Amino acid sequence: MDIAMIGLGRMGANMAQRLHRGGHRVVGYDPGEGARQRAAEAGLEVVDSLAAAVAALPVPRVVWLMVPAGETVDQTLGQLTPHLAEGDIVIDGGNSNYQDSIRRAKALAEDDLGYVDCGTSGGVWGLQEGYSLMVGGEAAVVEQIAPLLRTLAPAEDRGWARVGPSGAGHFTKMVHNGIEYGMMQAYAEGFALMERKQEMELDLAQVAEVWRHGSVVRSWLLDLSTEALKRNPSLDGIAPYVEDSGEGRWTVAEAIALDVPAPVITLSLLERLRSRESNSFTDRLLSAMRNEFGGHAIKKS
User: Does pTM top 0.70 for this prediction?
Assistant: First the structure.
C-alpha cells in the first residue's frame, strides 16, 4: 500500500521505516532539510514538498501526518487539501486534541475526504517493538487503511483497533497519557523514598530489576527506569525539571467537565508544574506565614 508520511521527526521517520520494511511504499516529506536528509540516508524515498508527496501517490491516496499538535496540523491541512481529491484519506497520528480531530473530520468530509485520528504510543521503541494504535473515524475508512495499521502494530491481530468515531482515537490517547503521568509519578516517588533511606544501602537498579519479574508493579515504564538507573544510578546531570506535552492537562480538564474524580492524574500534572519552579513564590510565602504566626525561623536564600 502506498502512503505519504508528512513529518519526519524521529517518530515519523521510525514509523515510515517500519512501513517500508513491511512492504509498503512510503514517500516522506518534512519542511526541515535536515530531517529529509536523515530520512533519505535511512533509505526512505523523500521529496521536497507536500505537493510532490501527494503527486507521487496513486489515487486514492493516503497521507499520514506526524506533525506537532495544534496550529501546525491546521496549517499543514491548509497546504495539503488543495492537492487532494475525493476519496483520499488523511491520518493524524500526532497528539492532537480530540475536539480538534472531530472538527477537522467534519471539515474534510465536506470535500469527500476521509479523516482518521490515530493515537499513537510506542515512542522511540516503536520501530522495533511496534506501536499501540488507537483509531477513530468511520469504520469504512479505517478498514481501507487497516493494512498500514497491521504493519505498524506489534502484530496484525493486536495492539491496534478502531475504538470509535472521529475523535475517539485521540480521546483514548489523551486518557492513556494521563494514566502514564500517574504511573510515572508513583514510580518516581517510590524510588525517591528508597534513595533517601541511606542506612539500607539499597541498589535501586537491583531493586527495579527484581520488580521487573513477577511483581504486580512490573511494566514497560519500570523496564525503562531500570535501564536508566543502571546507566546513571545517581541521575547525575539530569535537572529536576519535567515538561508536559499537553495531554495531561486535557485529561484533567475533561475529568472536571465530566465530574469524574481523577486525583492521581491531577496531582501528577501539578507535580510536573512544580518541578519547574526554581524560586517558588508559593514556598517563600508559606515560610513568611509560618514566621508571622509562630515566629518560626526563615531560611535565608
Answer: yes
